[in-house]
Amino acid sequence: MESTLALVYILAYIYTMSINRAQNLNRLLQSHKADTVLLAPYLVKNGISRGLQEKYRSGKWLEPVGAGAFVRVGDTLDWQGALYSLQSQLDLPVHVGAMTALSMQGRTHYLRFDEQVFLFSTQTQRLPLWFKRQSWYKTVSFHRTNFLPTTELDVNTVPYKTFTIKVSIPERAILEVIYLTPKYIDWSEAYQILEGLSTLRPALLQSFLISCNYIRVKRLFLFMAAKIGHPWFSHLDISAIDLGAGKRSLVKNGVYIPDYLLTVPRELVNL
């Protein structure tokens, strides 16, 4: 009698656990943003163990897109949905930057046909292998750098489909553009992007220029900004910005700009 009763309790426990697990998955899938990734640590945190993840994969509930990463069967994955999951589920300090951030906020119309997606993170952060190995429809260019400190105040959230993505505010994004010049962005291209940004906020620019660790970025930005002459430029306190000491040269046989101790490409001077 006691053994029968114990068996009943065990079966009831197993049944209850099975129901709870199914409810956990159902609840998670209902709240899950379509076309984004479900990451293994996030699933575990929400009651879906590694073993259950494999079971749901075998049962065609989840489809793997790499080690520790799944999409809901029927979803379409793009880099935006993948990045959203890194930002929201793992809280990784990775954000959209430079030209990509500006275009996502409607702040530039000067876009190349083959525009790359620029992502930035702290110098120690790495992208998961599953993200790097995906064949995205655009080239994703990932930059780990400490040229600017990163805080939550440096990013905006931009809507995309049913979720939002963290992107650099315009004042940070333009400095990221300068940082990428000329390896990823042409001199004239960077100049024309800055030329279109007539409503930047000088107080935020001032803060970024003070905290920027790259002398080249600061000098080149100020040279371009002075040449363009947007109203916000007159509100910058250049005396408070550390521009370093000594001459710097961006190119050979360029034009020397004494105000910024900087030799720049002739094409910039002639714009």
Structural account:
- The radius of gyration is 25 Å and the shape is elongated.
- It is built from 11 helices and 11 strands.
- A hairpin with a 2-residue loop joins strand 2 and strand 3.
- It folds into 2 domains: 2-72; 79-269, Beta Polymerase, domain 2, CATH 3.30.460.
- The strands form 4 sheets. Strands 1-3-2 form a 3-stranded antiparallel sheet. The chain has a 3-stranded mixed sheet with strand order 4-5-6. It has a 3-stranded mixed sheet with strand order 9-11-10.
- It is α+β, with helices and mostly antiparallel strands and 271 residues long.
Notable characteristics:
three-stranded mixed sheet; 271 residues; 42% helix; alpha+beta; three-stranded antiparallel sheet
Outline:
With 271 residues, this protein is an alpha+beta fold. The chain has helices spanning 2-31, 40-45, 50-58, 79-89, 98-104, 129-132, 170-180, 187-195, 202-211, 215-228, 266-269; strands at residues 38-39, 62-66, 69-72, 94-96, 117-121, 140-144, 155-160, 163-168, 248-249, 255-257, 262-264.
CATH topology of the largest domain: Beta Polymerase, domain 2
How far the N terminus sits from the C terminus, by CA atoms, comes to 94 Å
Number of strands: 11
Indicate how many domains the architecture comprises: 2
Count up the helices. 11
Q: By helix and strand content, what is the structural category?
A: alpha+beta
Based on CA atoms alone, the radius of gyration comes out at 25 Å
Beta content: 15-25%
Average pLDDT, all residues: 87
